[in-house]
Amino acid sequence: MKTNSRTLRLFLLCLLWIAALSAQETDEAVEPEKKKERFAIAFGAAAGNFANDAANFTSIYSNRSISRIYFAGIGSSSFLFVGKYREFFAHGSSKVENIAVTGKAEWKQKFYSAGIRVRSNDQPIYAEVLYVITRAEESLTTVDPVVQELTSRYETENKGVGFAVGFALKLIGPIGIYAEGEFSAMLRGGRNPQGKADPELGGFCASAGLFFAL
Fold this sequence. Notes:
The chain has 2 helices and 9 strands, in the order αβαββββββββ. With 214 residues, it is of the alpha+beta class. Strands 1-3-4-5-6-7-8-9 form an 8-stranded antiparallel barrel.
């Protein structure tokens, strides 16, 4: 089921990418005079919903926060070097087997991305290719009763690639709104101190927010 879900996300992103290319070709056919490149700078903030691909993540972390996302870019009207930061938090109940103890789990994850954004001159649809570094921290504690021996904290870092397709529309002067879908695929790491394989840290994030661009 998870493989089908990831395949569907990639398929949707590919469809949006094809739509962007089609729009670019149509504009070039209607308007033979190509617009001149100009210097551009942009930054913005958004809120998003991140779906983590880690196994059993949703069954443990039922209370997930809205992701906060920030980006900045510099380049030209059709090509930007972009940097992104995203953070994600989740809370839930940890599973303690064969013991009558209630467990609590906390997840903190941060994404640091850098890459390129491309689009046709002054067109709202854009696409990005990103290099992604993500760091995750998981804390497991017990309540009712507290068992200190069952308290643990685990940190891991992973690297991978991200692909995004978005729609940015100016509203008033340099201020505008944008919506974006980003899929990140992480390389699998090693094993944690308990001998279990590191969790999958990638996933799909849908977001929307405001930007300022010149």
